[in-house]
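We read letters as residues; the integers encode the fold. Take this protein.
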Amino acid sequence: MKTRIQHTEGRKQQGGSAILFIIALTSTFLWLGAMDVKAQSIEFDGLIEPKLSANMGSNTPGILESVSVDRGDMVKEGQVVATLQAGVEKSTMELAKARAELDATIKAKKAEMEFADRSKQRKKELYEKKTLSFQEWDEAETRRMLAELALNEALEAKRLAELEYKRSVEVVKRMSIRSPVNGVVVDRYLHPGEYIEDKPVMKLAQIDPLHVEVIMPVSMLGSVRSGMFAEVKPEAPVGGLYKAKVTIVDKVVDAASGTFGVRLELPNPDYKLPPGLKCKVRFLNP
């Protein structure tokens, strides 16, 4: 009788634990759902910023020869936006190119080796017939070896000249400043004739896509997740509604302000939206 009572009490305890687990799980889902609804019902302040903003300069000091773009101009990735004076470097490159293309020495050394090879073969036959002294045979063999070494030396010299030409080409390339992104010139700092050392020539910004930065209160933690979409409404006079995607949700909360950051990616293929605008952001259903 006692055993039955104990089994019954055990089943009651297991059933009670299961009910508590279901209640806790249901509460969690309800909380998450409430948080999502809360996030979707509020508009948050945001700021539209460039995806990338960087000062462009040169790692080679020199005098600026030309700047082909100005503030507000659009640039493409790889486009030359400025050049340094490179007269000496270009002359060195042309000289290296001429040396790399020289084949006369190699042709002469090949001819010498072929002659030495034929001479060695003839004298080998005579030596085997005992009509030529060992000294003459040894001289023919030595001339052939020296001719081969001279040819190898000429081939190595040509290879070094080709490497020197490649190096000089890279030096000349470094005298050109190219845009690393598709973007816009935000500002221009230097003009032709000025000396570059550690100074930036211009500032570029990548504005497709754009980033939207939102600061949210800690009470919204868990309501926004990467991959969610949101409506972005830029301030007047631009206005309109644009769709953006959440790419970053900060894992660390700022204790002083009780906030955390969220970043969204906003496509801007026609460059209609200028960065720097304030906006309102409302998160959509995941």
